[in-house]
């Protein structure tokens, strides 16, 4: 089904990674919300979500609720377990209690620095769903994968495994992020992103059903900037972006969120 017919609301998501403490997060969210307001940003057309570090979430939740900002937010990771002897882990129950809407699972930095497997990413996605959170499931190939297996084989495999235990019809978001494009300044071509996103939608259809596949937002991530966002958003199967570095520069992130104002979109 075509993007417009399926009415997938575009999602521009900012992954802050390990940046901004809870005090800095308050100033940042205020400035971001005011900048969007000054630009007459229409939240009914595009959703803007932020993903601060765990220790910022309570401050961000309180500020957004008190000032009635229309930003949504989520966490950068979740435990596969809900409670128990798991030192250092954060439960999906706790994130839900903080009004998180989303949680990122399987970001390439978790996969490479914390050795997270496809199975663990699947368990985390299931933990998110059973706690009322929407998992943003990240998949993507390394430069070596790209050379040896092409762009789509690894992301398709990663998503297929991650969805194995996810109940059909669940609300999920998928982020296609080629590892070589993350933080490198070298984004994938919109054509490559579209080809992989189309195949990922087929995986969702086979695991979770075709209605779910039509409704699922697939994001592109990897060196997204205001200068290239429009070229991705023109693609049929790309419904938004997961933005790292540029999400920490307010003017740039606002321009990315306002992609509909760019020529030709
Ligand atoms: C990311 O970390 O998910 C990401 C896409 O980073 P960047 O935008 O900096 O490439």
Spans of at least 5 consecutive residues with low confidence: none
Relative strand content: 5-15%
Strand order of the largest sheet: 1-2-3-4-5-6-7-8
Our measurement of the CA-to-CA distance between the termini, rounded to an integer number of angstroms, reads: 19 Å
Give the secondary structure arrangement, pairings included.
Blueprint: H1 3-6, E1 11-15, H2 22-38, E2 47-51, H3 57-67, E3 72-75, H4 92-97, E4 102-105, H5 108-113, H6 118-130, E5 134-139, H7 143-149, H8 153-162, E6 173-176, H9 190-208, H10 210-215, E7 217-221, H11 229-233, E8 240-243, H12 250-257
Parallel strand pairs: 1-2, 1-8, 2-3, 3-4, 4-5, 5-6, 6-7, 7-8
Helix pairs in contact: 2-3, 2-12, 6-8, 8-9
This protein binds phosphoenolpyruvate.
The site of phosphoenolpyruvate has 13 residues, from strand 8.
């Amino acid at each position: 089904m075509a993007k417009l017919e399926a009415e997938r609301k575009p999602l521009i998501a900012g992954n802050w990674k390990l940046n901004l403490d809870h005090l800095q997060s308050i100033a940042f969210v205020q400035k971001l919300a005011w900048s969007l307001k000054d630009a007459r940003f229409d939240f009914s057309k595009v959703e803007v979500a932020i993903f601060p570090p765990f220790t910022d979430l309570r401050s961000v939740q309180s500020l957004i609720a008190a000032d009635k900002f229309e930003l949504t937010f989520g966490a950068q990771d979740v435990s596969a377990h809900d409670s128990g002897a798991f030192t250092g882990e954060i439960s999906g129950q706790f994130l839900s209690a903080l009004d998180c809407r989303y949680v990122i699972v399987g970001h390439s930095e978790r996969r490479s620095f914390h050795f997270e497997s496809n199975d663990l990413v699947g368990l985390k996605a299931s933990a998110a769903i059973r706690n009322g959170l929407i998992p943003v499931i990240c998949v993507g190939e390394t430069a070596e994968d790209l050379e040896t297996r092409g762009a789509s084989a690894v992301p398709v495999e990663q998503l297929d495994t991650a969805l194995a235990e996810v109940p059909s019809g669940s609300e999920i978001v998928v982020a296609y992020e080629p590892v070589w494009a993350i933080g490198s300044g070298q984004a994938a071509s919109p054509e490559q992103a579209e080809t992989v996103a189309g195949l990922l939608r087929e995986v969702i259809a086979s695991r979770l059903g075709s209605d779910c596949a039509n409704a699922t937002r697939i994001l592109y991530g990897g060196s997204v900037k205001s200068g290239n966002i429009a070229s991705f958003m023109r693609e049929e199967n790309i419904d938004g972006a997961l933005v790292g570095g540029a999400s920490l520069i307010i003017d740039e992130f606002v321009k990315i969120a306002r992609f509909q104002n760019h020529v030709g979109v």
